[in-house]
Amino acid sequence: MTLWGDVEYTSVRELRGPLAVLEGVEGVGYDEFARITLETGEQRHGLVLEVDRDLAVVQVLEDTTGMDPRGTRVAFTGGPLRIPVGPAWLGRVCNGRGEPVDGGPPVFGRASAPVGGDPLNPVRREPPSEPVLTGVGVVDALTTLVRGQKLPVFSAAGLPHLELAAQIAAQATAGGEPFSVVFAGMGLTHPDASFVRDALEERSATGDLVLLLNTADDPVIERILTPRLALTVAEDLAFTGGRHVLVVMTDMTSYAEALREVSAARGEVPARRAYPGYLYSDLASLYERCGRLRGRTGSVTVLPVLTMPAGDITHPVPDLTGYITEGQIVLSRETHALGVYPPVDALSSLSRLMRKGAGPGRTRADHLDVAAQLLAALARARQVRELADLVGRPALSPADRRHLVFEEAFLRGFVNQPSDASRSLEQTLEDAWQALLTLPRGQLSMLPAALLDEHGAREAPEDQDEVSDMPGEEGTPP
Fold first, then answer.
1. DSSP run (H or E) holding 284
2. What is the spatial distance between Cα 417 and Cα 113, in angstroms, rounded to a whole number?
3. 8-state DSSP, 243
4. Tens of pLDDT along 241-283?
5. pTM score of the predicted model
6. Which of its termini does the chain have fewer beta carbons within 10 Å around, N or C?
7. Cβ atoms 411, 477 nearer than 8 A
8. What is the rounded (10 degree) CA torsion for 64, 227, 153, 132?
9. DSSP characters for 390-409?
């Protein structure tokens, strides 16, 4: 339970956007939590952003709309914002401040923890290992998510990144071990928030899900708080409760824009594209809260989703995210235009820790070899398609034309799957083999001969009709 200070300050000098500036304060520190009482008796809450001599800048979580500086009283707690933690969060749906919106009582816990998190001793960190299987074939096979990893999804406006995030949150598992999902939605429209609740209803009913939803019309400050609440809950479930926890955060671009708005209200000197100069360290303070600890059975895995404005991967948010995280899953407009879901661009995607969580003893013995051969064949197919645009398909060699057949089999038979279907890793790898076997054996040089024999790879597959349902001349992708 939070104990409030006895001193209430009434000297609110200025209200500026979501900020309140107080003067004449004493003993107030950075990140201190505050209770704000309006003249009407309404209570709001805030966090101290800055202290300069007797001045304190407080960000009001519920915004300053309707506040009268002359009738506002502010009391400080003497410590940072803390929330109750524990398994009581599981199965609950709350807003971005952690207040229930599912009709249930407030969330209580056996203990409380600061939302800023406690720094993890680097010496106690264990390297990420063992997979988190998402049920999305192309992700599990080519960019395997590893327990304790931070792996972002890079998307653009109009692509189904929210559907993919909800699907992963609904389907992810950790090999039968205790597993939970914390889903933090930031800046969602009301239809999107309803979609997320419906998509995750079954998982929520099983008591494996914590859902925090900040909508676009909620106060901007709440958007900054939401991912920190999610990570605080996840850390307790993992390191105290012994669970493997997946934290899905979408959309981190909305979070960064909220940070930019608060920075502008504080009058800070802007950096790239008007984002604050500390955007990198702020994002790192979120992403680096994942991992595994020596002596603890649980883990925190982070899957942030962000939209790239105008599809620009050099935009500050994806650019800085790429420096902090261990790879990326990139969604493609071209693949989406072909009607393929999920529209993952496999050649632009990467999981740098995949070899720590896939292969013999973890997924399947042939997993890494199959993934490497898929990417090599897809890269060759892309080159062939560009060549066909220049010289025409009839001028291609038989091997080149076979790579075009492989590309279609890769997209239609391997990548494409319904958004409400979970695909096992065994089925995913078998689908991968079916795509690879459209190529002659001589083109599968990255696979051991024993595996090729086992799956019946032929030296020269019989010619077959290459007409497809995909648009483009003679069945080739456009």
1. helix 279-287
2. 40
3. -
4. 999 999 999 999 999 999 999 898 888 899 999 999 999 999 9
5. 0.90
6. N
7. yes
8. -160
9. HH-GGGS-HHHHHHHHHHHH
